[in-house]
Amino acid sequence: MLPTHERLTxxxxxxxxxxxxxxxxxxxxxxxxxxxxxHITQALGSVELRKLRPAHVHALAQKLEAKNLAPSxxxxxxxxxxxxxxxAVAMELIPRNVARPVKLESAQQxxxxxxxxxxxxxxxxxxxxxxxxxxxxxxxxxxxLRREELLGLRWQDVDLPGRALRVEQTLTPVKxxxxxxxxxxxxxxxxxxxxxxVVAVLEDWRKRxxxxxRILGDHWQDTGLVFTSSTGQPLHPRNVNRDxxxxxxxxxLPPLSPHGMRHTHATLLAQKTKQIELVSRRLGxxxxxxxxxxxxxxxxxxxxxxxxxxxxxxxxxPRTLN
Length: 322
Fold this sequence. Notes:
Elements: H1 10-22, H2 27-44, H3 54-66, H4 71-90, H5 118-128, H6 134-143, H7 147-152, E1 158-159, E2 164-166, E3 170-174, E4 177-181, E5 191-193, H8 196-216, H9 237-250, H10 259-273, H11 276-283, H12 288-294, H13 301-305, H14 310-313
Antiparallel strand pairs: 1-2, 2-5, 3-4
């Protein structure tokens, strides 16, 4: 039960608002909101809701900056507070949303992604061959799938003869285990093609998995997932992080997170094809502008290709850009 309006604190209201949101939201989204609310309550939790002012929100923004949090993440935290207060306004607990006028300055920032070159990828894959997750790493670098898409991939969504797979579900970490659910957006639900090298890797992996299932018999847990534990159970994302970090450290490779496999694939593909829209569709981005923003540093050819002399611009003969 909520305290009276006069005594209701920001912390009280955020917990009430979160409970209502959690009943309808995906577990991963709820975890994100919980993290945001922890930051807010550390700064404003004891403030009475009706006494909250824009100055309080400004102070929160400054404290978030002092924690060296990324600007995008700080903006997410403030958006969560604004959404919670908007609901409080609708419930007539407060007269106005004091977070609405408080915005972070959106300074232009160059988003630099971490990616490996082709030689480093080859060294990593060679080093990872003894590891159970070698097929996952290979597929990650070959397709650009997100970690949660790789872990949620089912054999029924893989067409080896047709050399393509469908992204239909994801596997994400939640408290006490993992959650299997739909992809993060409509664009994320897509078909991704691959080469004969991937076919060979996945065929070998399927043979090994079937042999494990035969040996375990009734003790094998048939989840239908492509990448599983040695007993057929879903893999926790931390397993991917752990093995990748161990290989990198042992072989003195440049640091890279599992998401870096996706960035590496996109970077190498963009350099090879010079087609941002193709890369965007393959990655499942909602808009090509997102892809261009992320990989602008490897898309310098766009400026070079359009740097044409005026005489050529005025020429009636069409010119095909490579």
